[in-house]
Amino acid sequence: MPDRLSALDASFLYVEDHATPMHVGGVAIFERPRTGFGYEQMLALIGQRLAFLPRYRQRVQEIPGRLARPVWVDDVDFDLNYHVRRSALPQPGSDEQLFDLVARLMSRRLAPERPLWEAYFIEGLGGDRVALVTKTHQSVVDGLGTIELGQIVLDPTPAEVEPFDDTWTPRREPSRTQLVMDAVSETVQRPTELVENVRSAANDAVATAGKVAEALGGVATALRTVVHPAPAGPLNVRVSGGRMFAVVRTRLEDFRKIRAEHGGTVNDVVLAAVTGALREWLLSRGETLTPQDTVRALVPMAVRDAETAEYSTPALVGNQVAAYLVDLPVGEPNPVLRLQHIGHAMTDHLDSGRSVAARGLLKVGGFAPATLHSLGARAAGSLSGRIFNLMVTNSPGPQVPMYAGEARMVEMFPVMPLLRNQALAIGVSSYHGGVYFGLNGDRKAVSDVEVLAGMIEESLEELKGAHW
């Protein structure tokens, strides 16, 4: 019997439309080695690694009459060249041209009749660099059965890419009759499944409230959150189909120095830098701020299985990402007080005993941030967008160089999806001494996303120069 999508995975398909494609992306930039590194090598590398990701060769098959949730079936017409595409910028291509292309690629939905992922190998970047842009649907990456493609393409040591010989044989697709019979059989055994499927498709309020309660750890907390929705503001408008993408490059050493000076964690400093930037951005738009004003961020964070003592891959990347709400104090003019407010707000999560320190995440194999950002997007997508203003994901990565074949990765930027009424999403990854921000904004509502990106740098400088 084919694998059936979970209720959460199916909901990502049901709520998707042209304005809100439900995929998570990443932009990895590589230095081309002297021996060269081109499309054929990247194609072979990805082809080799797909053996570890069987879901990437499967597509979604709907059930006639929606008697049950869709199932995963092998794509008998799977074409690796369709999924790994070649593109180029006019040489010498600039970073601005690359990120403009990223915005256009991320605004397009993945083809529902094919496996739900794409990768673009982009040549022509100045400085003899190439880029790999990935798009993976949120229904694909569950963190346990399937991780993100970016996590297994990268290795800690360079190695020549061997020629790829595809010997994969797809299983025969089930017939419509078989799909219906399987669905009827499951409904007879578990009649509540049919009701749950209808709820997922409708995204009704009861189902949403239940997911809030589960994510936030209790009915009382959930009810308070629902009664008091996120503050209104320019970030919460119905998004268009267009996107703008901007990046920020910072150094991990700066965050560590600020943490040493003022306390808290590196993640607190990241959120404080974002808070200061949002404050200046709101003021630049003519918004009036009082000292009590906040912007509510959903901050998905990795958590450790309470029964697992080791920082193992299954323990950290087995759907163990908690959706944590943090009110960012944008009304507070003092940068140090902003940091302290955030540190206090995050204390409850740290005191739960389930939070995962950066040193634990670094023990996960491959480039784990790719998977953890995907899991963060899943956590956000499972909740009502009315209870938070934006999503901010932050995942520490390895502090040693990573390679695709013999090409060294020099930068990595997450691209987080937008929800229907949220015009900005921020992903942050640290890697080899750098901290890299990816800002995905709606083209109409946040057309000045590059301005906001510059304000993050200014906010970080303000924290570096602050004395208390």
Automatic annotation (TrEMBL):
Pathway: Lipid metabolism; Glycerolipid metabolism; triacylglycerol biosynthesis. It catalyses: an acyl-CoA + a 1,2-diacyl-sn-glycerol = a triacyl-sn-glycerol + CoA. Keywords: Acyltransferase, Glycerol metabolism, Lipid biosynthesis, Lipid metabolism, Transferase. Its EC number is 2.3.1.20. Belongs to the long-chain O-acyltransferase family. PANTHER family: O-ACYLTRANSFERASE (WSD1-LIKE) FAMILY PROTEIN (PTHR31650), WAX ESTER SYNTHASE_DIACYLGLYCEROL ACYLTRANSFERASE 4-RELATED (PTHR31650:SF1). This is Diacylglycerol O-acyltransferase.
